[in-house]
Fold this protein.
Amino acid sequence: MTSPRLKDRTSTDLLVVHCSATGSADIGKREITQWHLKRGFVTIGYHYVIRRDGTLETGRRESELGAHAVGHNHNSIGICMVGGVDAKGKPADNFQKAQWDTLRVLLSQLKARYSSARIVGHRDLSPDLNRDGKVTPNEFTKACPSFDISAWLKKNPL
Ligand SMILES: [Zn+2]
């Protein structure tokens, strides 16, 4: 499949980490592309996918406009970790060591290219309802990516 040529972003201020909201299934770019085509996207919405075994797959070209975070696509890169829900479909931090290793390498490389970009989880982009300058768990409108990326970065500096 040849990917359509998409518009480029003008800036990159955010690196947004998502999950696929799947369980332990070994899915990746191919499956996610099918879901996104069904939703009417021209191709997969993310720039990168990290499979359960840590394999990195490229979705949209890194310079292209993504479709992964409403209101933030014009200035962000979207990374999807495969997993993120338990057998009952509830949000769960069930990612594998190989995935964390790949995430760390990818984020380090992206930070080298976009040094001022902020690393956030999708849920951290929920509206700050009480306008106190931070988005707290009671304000999350979604669970994605099912883990606290700032806590992870503190424990695992790039
Ligand atoms: Zn998401």
Notes: The first strand starts at residue 14 and ends at 19.
